[in-house]
User: Which sequence fits this backbone?
């Protein structure tokens, strides 16, 4: 999980500090990155934020409870320091592979139960820190983080630079990050042995531009490159092989069984004798060892004074990668201030992606015919619609704090093959699912 | 990279108007921030990252996880 380091990018406009913040606003653009420093805008307050989130998938799959805290503070006149801690508590079951049922329809098989009652019982703890230095028309943010799960460790560092140009109507952002990940599967995997590695780099070039006194536009381009072990060690791919040379153990048919003790990557996941004698081989998910992804993001933000200072946020993102996946994301949100510092925020999101070149729900034939193969539903062609609403209440009259804000929201996400642009995979309904995400947070400035 | 800069400069020449510092009050409103709620943004981005193949665009980088 990406760990977000929070440096407030919004300038809170309170009655007591209106002049100060209007001056700050006049000096700088809102930030391009949620965790990047903004040129010419050093933090003037101490900030502390706490968030709880609950994520729940349909079909009694994954549930996650998220606990997160972040703080930032000014250090002298030119430096802001921040840190973030997060804990994810994860339980449930995850799709492991696909197979054909008696009617020949593709169905998912979930991971089975383990000692804790769920197949997945994990906890992720992560900490990140950042330090920003501000000049008059430039800032630099150095950040780093560490994330630990029982079978996954990630370390990353990033540097982002922000430059104000054109009388501070234009901000150019450049950045780079590198992450070093280690995967330690809970059982032996010959692809990586006891431990395997992945290195990911991402580079950003972005420009945010004030268009007029009520609107601004952001254009970002990121280039990502990952290499190393990019497969999922817990997912299998079913290969249907008529007249296979593999022989099933009649006492173990239909259950997991190591077929060839000398090759632990080949496990027998079942047999199908309803039509012709057929063996179903379960092979380990095997993806290319490098991935190159290019992303473009355009964000348009507009203020509507006559609608009680409401704001529209419209985002469009396109990505393409060398695995054959193109994706489109459209997101709209409407920030509507209502009475007494309340704010109502409805949002809508649409996402569509193509399937990876090496994805099939199930495979037919000999695995040796294929160099790469995966049946991971996240590499399938699909679309997703989501909608949600959030409510926010700010308290600006308190004595001990300059700003206190409570926020709560809920979002429903519906993943369906038929939602894909062009509906090229509409019959792949086996992977349809939904989830809801509930969040609650409060933010303090003092 | 050059295309991005050219596009933005072209856009600015055709669409931008000079906005004096004293005219930027609306742009400083919390709801006009590019990321009004960074904590929630991070959580939503992470959730999407763990369920979808797309990544990037928003920048910021960050570490990986076993979720994807």
Assistant:
């Amino acid at each position: 999980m990406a760990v977000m380091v929070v440096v407030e990018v919004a300038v809170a406009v309170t009655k007591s500090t209106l002049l100060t913040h209007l001056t700050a606003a006049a000096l700088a653009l809102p930030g391009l990155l949620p965790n990047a420093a903004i040129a010419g805008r050093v933090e003037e307050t101490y900030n502390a934020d706490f968030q709880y989130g609950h994520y729940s998938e349909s079909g009694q799959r994954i549930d996650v409870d998220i606990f997160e805290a972040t703080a930032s503070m000014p250090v002298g006149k030119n430096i802001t320091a921040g840190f973030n801690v997060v804990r994810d508590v994860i339980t449930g079951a995850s799709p492991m592979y696909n197979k054909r049922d008696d009617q020949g329809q593709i169905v998912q098989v979930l991971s089975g139960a383990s000692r804790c009652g769920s197949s997945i019982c994990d906890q992720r703890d992560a900490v990140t820190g950042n330090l920003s230095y501000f000049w008059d028309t430039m800032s630099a943010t150095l950040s780093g983080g560490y994330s630990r799960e029982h079978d996954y460790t990630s370390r990353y560092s990033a540097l982002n630079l922000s430059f104000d140009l054109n009388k501070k109507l234009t901000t150019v952002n450049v950045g780079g990050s590198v992450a070093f990940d280690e995967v330690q599967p809970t059982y032996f995997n010959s692809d990586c042995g006891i431990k395997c590695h992945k290195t990911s780099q991402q580079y950003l070039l972005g420009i945010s531009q004030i268009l007029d006194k009520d609107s601004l536009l952001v254009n970002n381009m990121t280039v990502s490159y990952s290499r190393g072990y990019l497969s999922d060690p817990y997912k299998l791919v079913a290969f249907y092989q008529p007249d296979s040379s593999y022989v099933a153990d009649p006492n173990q048919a239909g259950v997991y069984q190591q077929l060839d003790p000398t090759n632990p990557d080949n496990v027998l996941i079942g047999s199908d004798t309803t039509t012709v004698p057929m063996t179903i081989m379960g092979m380990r998910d095997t993806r290319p060892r490098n991935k190159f992804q290019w992303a473009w993001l355009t964000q348009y933000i507009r203020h509507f004074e006559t609608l009680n200072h409401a704001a529209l946020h419209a985002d469009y993102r396109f990505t393409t990668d060398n695995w054959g996946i193109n994706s489109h994301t459209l997101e709209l949100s409407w920030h509507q201030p209502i009475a007494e510092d309340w704010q109502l925020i409805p949002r809508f999101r649409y996402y569509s992606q193509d399937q990876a070149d090496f994805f099939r729900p199930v495979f037919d034939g000999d695995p040796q015919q294929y160099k790469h193969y995966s049946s991971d539903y996240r590499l399938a062609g699909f679309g997703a619609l989501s909608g949600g609403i959030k409510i926010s209440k700010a308290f600006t009259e308190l004595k001990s704090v300059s700003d206190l804000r409570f926020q709560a929201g809920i979002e429903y996400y519906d993943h369906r093959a038929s939602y894909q642009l062009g509906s090229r995979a509409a019959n792949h309904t086996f992977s349809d699912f939904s989830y809801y995400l509930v969040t609650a947070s409060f933010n303090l400035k003092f | 990279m050059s295309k991005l800069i050219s596009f933005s400069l072209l856009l600015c020449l055709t669409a931008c108007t000079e906005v004096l510092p004293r005219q930027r009050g609306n742009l400083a409103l919390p709801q006009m921030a590019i990321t009004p709620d960074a904590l929630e943004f991070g959580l939503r981005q992470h959730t999407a990252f763990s369920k979808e193949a797309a990544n990037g665009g928003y920048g910021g980088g960050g570490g990986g996880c076993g979720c994807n």
Chain A touches chain B through 127 residues (CB under 8 Å). DSSP finds one helix and 23 strands in chain A. The mean pLDDT of chain A is 82. The two ends of chain A are 29 Å apart (CA to CA).
